[in-house]
Amino acid sequence: MTAKAFTRPLMYLILALLSILFLIPVYVVIVTSLKPLDEVTLAKMWALPTHIDFSSYAEAFSKLAPNFWNSVYLVIPATILSAFLGSLNGYVLSKWRFKGADWIFTAVLFGMFIPYQSILIPLIRFLSHIGLYNTIPGLILVHVVYGIPITTLMFRNFYASIPMEMIESAQIDGAGIFKIYRHIMIPLSLLGLVVVGIWQFTNIWNEFLFAVTITTTDQHPIMVALQNLSGSQIVQWNVQMAGAIIAALPTLLVYIFLGKFFVRGMLAGSVKG
Amino acid sequence: MTLQPETKTHPTIKPKTKKRLSKDRWLAFLFILPSIILIAIFVYGFIAWTGYVSLSNWNSLVPDLSFVGLKNYLFLFHDFRFQADLRNTLFFTILFILCVLILGLFLAVLLDRKIRGESVFRNIFLFPMALSFIVTGVVWQWILNPSTGVNLILHKLGLKPMWYTSVSVIPGVEWGKIQFGIPVAIIAVVIAAVWQMTGFSLAMYLAGLRAIPEELREAARIDGANEFQVFTKVIFPQLMPITVSVIIIMAHISLKIFDLIYAMTGPGANFVTDVPGVYMYETTFRGNFYGNGAAIAIIMLLFVAIFIVPYLISSRKGGES
Fold this sequence. Notes:
The complex is a heterodimer.
Chain A lengths: L1 H32 L21 H41 L5 H10 L6 H13 L6 H24 L4 H9 L4 H9 L4 H17 L2 H6 L7 H8 L7 H32 L5
Chain B lengths: L14 H40 L16 H7 L2 H32 L6 H9 L6 H11 L6 H7 L12 E7 L2 E6 H28 L2 H9 L4 H12 L1 H16 L3 H6 L11 H11 L3 H31 L1
C-alpha cells in the first residue's frame, strides 16, 4: 500500500511533465503569433506579448487565403469521392468475395505504403497529357486514386462486422446487389463514413508532396503556401506562426470535436483492424 | 466468421434467386473493376514506368529515354549526397522508431492505470497526429533555432546545442565519401517527428493493453509474480504483434519522409539532414535529372517493400484464419 501511495503521485507528476513538454510548441506558436513584429526577437521568444496583436493573423490570412480556398475546393470533393469508392470496394470485398479477391486486396493495399516519389514522374506526365496538370481537379483525381487502398481497407474491416445473415435474408427476399447496398449497407455505414471521411479529410488537407509537384503558385494548396512563407528573405516568425495556426485549424478542429473517430481511423489504418 | 456467398448458398433459395446471385457476382466484380484498373495503372504501371526512366539517359529538361542500364544507380552509390542520405535515413529510422516505441509504450502503461483526467492527457499526446508535417516542421524550426527557442533555457544551464545547424557526425568514421555515424543535426528532426508520431504508438499500445484480460494479470500475480514481472512476462509478450505493426508503420513513414525535413531543415550543410525523399524532389523537379530522380525513387520503394511486403502477406494469412 505504501508503495502505491507513493507511485500514484509520481505517475501524475511524470504525466504532467511530459504534457508540458508536448505543449511547448503550442505555447510558443500562440504566443509568437499574437506578438507585433518588433516583439518577435530571438531574446524574447518565451515572453508573453505586452499586448495582444492580431496583425500577424491578418497578414498571414491575406497571404494564405487563396491557397486556403484551394485546399477547401480540393479536400471536399476528394474526401467524398474517395469515401464513396472505398465503401463500394469494401462492400464487394467483404460481402461478395470472389476467387482471388484476397490477392487483389493485398495488391491494392500495397498502394498505400509506396513512396509516392516512385510514381510521381509518370503521374505528372500523365496529368499534363490529359490537361489536368496544375489544376485542382487533377489533385482531386490523384487523392481519390491513391486514397483507394486506405478507404477500401477501412470499409472492408467495417463491413466485416455486419452479419452475413442480413445479406442472405435480403437475398431470399429477392434483393439484388444494388438493393442490398442501398438499403442495408449504406444506412449502416454512417460510422464508417465518418471515420473514413475524417481520415481522408485530414490526410488530404495535410498532404504536401503531390501539392508541391502537381500545382504551381496560383493553384497551390495551403501547406505549400505555408512552407513558402518561410522562403521569403526575412522570416517574420509571428506571421509564420499565425500561418501555421490558420493552416492547422481545420484538422485541429476536426480532432477536437471528432477526435474519437480520428483515432479509430488511425488504428484501422494499421492493416489489421 | 464472414460466410462467402459462392460457397454457402442457402438451401431454400429458388432457381430465380440463384440466377440473380450469379448475375450479382458478376456485378460485384464490375463494382470494383474501376478501382482495380486505377490501381493497376497508377500504382503498378507508373512504378514500372519510373523503373524504366531510372534506366534511361533522361537527365535534362528534354526527355531522352535511351537505355543506359544501371548508370543512374551507379552514379548514386558513388554520390556524396546519396551516401549521406543513406546514412541519415538509417540513423533517423532507428532513433525515430526507438523513441516512438518506448515513449508510446511508457505513456500507454501510465494511462492504462485508471488515471484521473486520462482523456485530457491522451489528447495532449495525440493531437499532433492531426497536424501536417509541414506545420510541425515550421514550428520546430523556430523552437530548435540555435540562437533562440529552447536554447534560451539551455544556455543558462551552460549547454549550447547547435541543433539542426550542427555539421558534426558522431563518431564520423571514413566510409565511402562520407563520415559515417549519427549526424547530430538529425536529432532535431527526430525530436519533431517523435513529437508528432508518438500518439500513434500510444493509441495502438493503449488499445492493446485494454484488450488483455485482467484475469491474465491476476493469474500471474497469484503465481507470485511482482508487477514488473507481470509486465515483462505477461503483458509485453501479448503486445508483440502491436510492436511489430508499429515498427513497420513507423519504418515506412521514416523511409519515405520528405515534408517534415523539407519544411524544417532542408538538406542541411554537408547534407547532414538530407534524405532520399528530399534529394529525389530537388534533383528531379529543380535540377531536371529525371533518370537520377527515378533511380532514387525506385531505391526508396525497394526499402519500403522490404518491410511492407512480408507484413502484408502475413496479415493476409492472419486475416483468413
